[in-house]
Amino acid sequence: MSLPALQNSAVFYRRIINRFPQDFSLAFAYGSAVFRQTGSSQGHMAKNMLDFVFAVDDPVTWHTMNLIENRKHYSFLRFLGPKQISSIQSDYGAGVYFNTLVPAEDRLIKYGVISTDALIDDLLHWKTLYVAGRLHKPVRILLQSENGNLRSALLGNLKSAVIASFLMLPESFSEEELYLQIAGLSYSGDFRMVFGEDKSKVSNIVKDNMQHFRQLYNRILLECPQVVYKPQQGRLEVDKSPEGQFTQLMALPRTLQQQITRLVDRPGKNRDVEEILLQVAQDPDCGSVVQQGISSIVKSSSITQSAKGIATAGLVKTVSYSAKKLQKMWRGWRRKPA
What is the 8-class DSSP label of residue 60? Predict the structure, then answer.
């Protein structure tokens, strides 16, 4: 008889991912069941659904194998077969296919499948900021291949989060303010933050996980020429001159630059991106423009991915999952001081 694995141990996670085809380029767990959040007890963590993302090189082959091993995880879409499931994954929403409310090791889990190429594209260019945004925050990496392009993209995504946050913060700010800004990037414009998510979610993520954020970002901040970082004081100072902001704007991911261009450029003028970003760098509302650009990316992907989720989860699971989200939102509202 085997001993039960501790609910947050490496053995426990290994037991879960061993239930799936093993052709992962990246597998990670994230969310409130993995990292403690403010106001959440150990008991609540053990009851929360565990969230995973699996990146795979060949989604058709992976879904073919998973349909053989775990057919019941899928909604009615399983009858369409692996090619159609892979098409739904890649062609709609944020390029992720989720199966939710799946029982595993006496817990409920949700797992999303994304192609390695789509993940790298999101990390580098913030096409949807859906998985890239999750990776701005601490996650538990369970498996990672030796894919050099993926490793480089993961680091580039963190650097982009820092640069975008610099543009939206004042000249001087605290380390906690930086991490609050970074953690909030992928929630900016997300319609679920209006209805379905705890409104203090970003603060809850950061306050109990400062050390995890430092592990992610400490080296990037120490090596970044755009900022003076004082780790002992927990303070940072960033270059807010037009020249400094222009350098930062030019380093932003491509999709965000394009969104900023659409916001600023008048119809018919068709100026190049560099000219528009130079104008934005001299604008006192530069940070606000960047914020609007990020919101437009997140809003679009959050709506389309959630709509896709109704089909991939099925009606019964969608209702059940939504009810759990609303319950968490209610708990967060009750914790707020009067």
Answer: H
Alpha-carbon distance of 147 to 323, in angstroms, equals: 39
| Residue 299 CB neighbour total at 10 angstroms | 14
Report the C-alpha gap between 199 and 193 in whole angstroms. Answer: 6
CA angle (302, 212, 98) in 5-degree steps: 30
14 has which bridge partners? Answer: none
CA-angle at 320, arms to 316 and 323, nearest 5°: 145
Q: How confident is the model at residue 228 (pLDDT cuts 50, 70, 90)?
A: very high
With a pLDDT cut of 70, the percent of the chain lying above it is 85
SS3 54: strand
- CB 53 within 8 Å of CB 8: no
Instruction: Supply the mean pLDDT for the chain.
Output: 88
N-to-C CA span, the chain: 51
Q: What is the SS3 assignment for 280?
A: helix
At 69, the amino acid letter reads E
Task: Please tell me the distance from the alpha carbon of residue 275 to that of residue 206, in angstroms, as a whole number.
Answer: 36
The whole model's pTM is what? 0.88
Contact predicate 220/159, CB 8 Å:
yes
Three-state DSSP at 7 gives: coil
Task: Extract the tokens encoding 31.
Answer: 């969310």
Question: pLDDT tens across 24-68, in order?
Answer: 999 999 998 999 887 665 666 777 899 999 999 999 999 999 999
